[in-house]
Design brief:
The protein is built from four helices and five strands, in the order E-E-H-E-E-H-E-H-H. It is 33% helix and 27% strand. The two termini are 26 Å apart. Strand 3 and strand 4 form a beta hairpin. By secondary structure, it is of the alpha+beta class. The longest helix is centred in the middle third of the chain and has 11 residues. The protein has a single domain, classed as GMP Synthetase, Chain A, domain 3, CATH 3.30.300.30. The strands form two sheets. The chain has a three-stranded mixed β-sheet with strand order 3-4-5, sandwiched between helices. A two-stranded antiparallel ribbon has the order 1-2.
Length: 118
């Protein structure tokens, strides 16, 4: 769960909205620290190479179906998501308790990038 300015955002809801875009092949949504809002929504998105889609186009896509506070403020486009990212998401979806390895969704974008880039 991401808490942005007191509003709760379910990462799976944002992931589902992103996955409806025809160019998106996989994604993971995380909360990153924000000095004003506590956390902000960030997305790591794996996409098909053609046609190229911009970060703003992906935010607009999500904005069509979700409230504004759920739209990712940070969108990082990657070639693919590797096993640690998929394991992190499947653990969250299974409702398991976090372990020391994947304790918090409150990770910095830099840590998320390091974990999710191939």
């Amino acid at each position: 769960m991401i808490n942005t300015g007191g509003e709760k955002v379910h990462p799976a809801e944002v992931e589902n909205a992103l996955l409806t875009h025809p160019a998106v092949t996989d994604c993971i949504v995380v909360g990153v620290p924000d000095p004003t809002w506590g956390e902000r929504v960030a997305a790591l998105v794996a996409m098909r190479p053609d046609p190229p889609v911009t970060q703003e186009e992906l935010r607009d896509w999500v904005r069509r179906s979700l409230a504004g506070y759920k739209v990712p403020r940070v969108v990082v486009i990657v070639d693919a998501l590797n096993a640690p990212c998929r394991t992190h998401r499947s653990t969250r979806l299974a409702g398991r308790e976090p372990t020391a390895r994947n304790r918090s969704r409150r990770v910095s974008v830099h840590i998320a990038l390091a974990a999710c880039r191939l």
